[in-house]
Amino acid sequence: MRGGVEQKKEQKKEGLLEAAYQLFLEKGVNKTSVDEIVKKANVAKGTFYLYFHDKTQLLQQLTYRISARVLSEAYEYAEEHKTGVFVEDIILMVDYIVEYFKRSRLTLRLLERNFSWPMIEKQLDLREDPLWDKLVTAIESSSLAVGCTEDVLYKRVFLVVELIGSTCFATMIENKPDTIDNMKPVLYDMVRKMLA
Q1: Same domain flag for 76 and 36
Q2: DSSP symbol at 175
Q3: 15 with 94, same domain?
Q4: What is the value of pTM for the model shown?
Q5: Is 164 domain-assigned?
Q6: Taking Cα atoms as reference points, which of 48, 79, 164 lies closest to residue 116?
Q7: Is the dihedral of CA 135, 141, 144, 150 positive or negative?
Q8: Element (DSSP H or E) covering residue 66
Q9: Residue 84 banded pLDDT, cuts 50, 70, 90
Q10: pLDDT, tens digit, for every residue of 119-129?
């Protein structure tokens, strides 16, 4: 019985996140109200506040979810197309992310500059994020790990992800300083240097 209740709760939360995602893409975050989200999710307004303090917290969870999905897809793509050279495998991930946002500019607009590693610091030691755990295992067997702590490795990867998100947003949404296709060689060169 308890499992059924928890499953229904999770379904309601998922419904709210999905409804918000669709509305945010259609109308934008600022023009979407909590009332519209609950109506689209077909739940009572009070249900919204069981899961989220406000629309900002919902957007934050949605941002983490999207970031995690894109990073996970990029990792799987890189695994399927491994070069055997760690830094070049990271470039495969980076290229996947760039191409994803080229195809889904509305999602990039929704994320703004908030595409980032969807993990809080206290999870680092626990390695609860399965993607982070896989990546750490790969990093630990690479030359990148020589003389680095896991914390330093995390910070390097974090900076790479932040650089990708900012570059994609600036080039694809703000059209600065050039097109993403012209920026790709510069971005990939910077990532290689950051991970060298």
Answers
A1: no
A2: -
A3: no
A4: 0.82
A5: yes
A6: 164
A7: positive
A8: helix 55-80
A9: confident
A10: 444 344 455 66
